[in-house]
């Protein structure tokens, strides 16, 4: 399945979660619910995927964790914050570069309308 097709399912699933739960909960709650929705849609989801850094052929277990990694092609970073900022975007871009993936989503569930909290992030490789 192509990244854009996965992305469409991600957005629809996130909207479903947000419509049912609304804003104001912990990130872990949204993560668990979105994980469930994506798996129900038939996608392969790795939750809290460990992401080492490779430096000069050495794998360094730096403790990075991808919130949801879908079909090993699309990265989802979930937030429940007042506002997204540049460091959140940098985090997704870094994960995309380290995994050599092209597409990621930064989803902030702490908004009245989820469309205000969606950032599609593309890695130019």
From TrEMBL:
One Pfam family named in its UniProt record: PDDEXK_3
Name under which the protein is recorded: GxxExxY protein
């Amino acid at each position: 399945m192509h990244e854009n097709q996965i992305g469409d399912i991600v957005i629809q699933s996130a909207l479903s979660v947000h419509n049912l739960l609304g804003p104001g909960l912990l990130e872990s709650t949204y993560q668990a619910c979105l994980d469930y929705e994506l798996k129900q849609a038939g996608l392969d989801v790795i939750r809290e995927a460990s992401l080492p850094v490779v430096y000069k052929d050495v794998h360094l277990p730096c403790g990075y964790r991808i919130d949801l990694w879908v079909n090993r092609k699309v990265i989802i970073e979930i937030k429940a914050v007042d506002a997204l900022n540049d460091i959140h975007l940098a985090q997704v871009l870094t994960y995309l570069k380290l995994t050599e993936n092209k597409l990621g989503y930064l989803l902030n569930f702490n908004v009245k309308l989820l469309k205000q909290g969606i950032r599609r992030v593309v890695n130019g490789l």
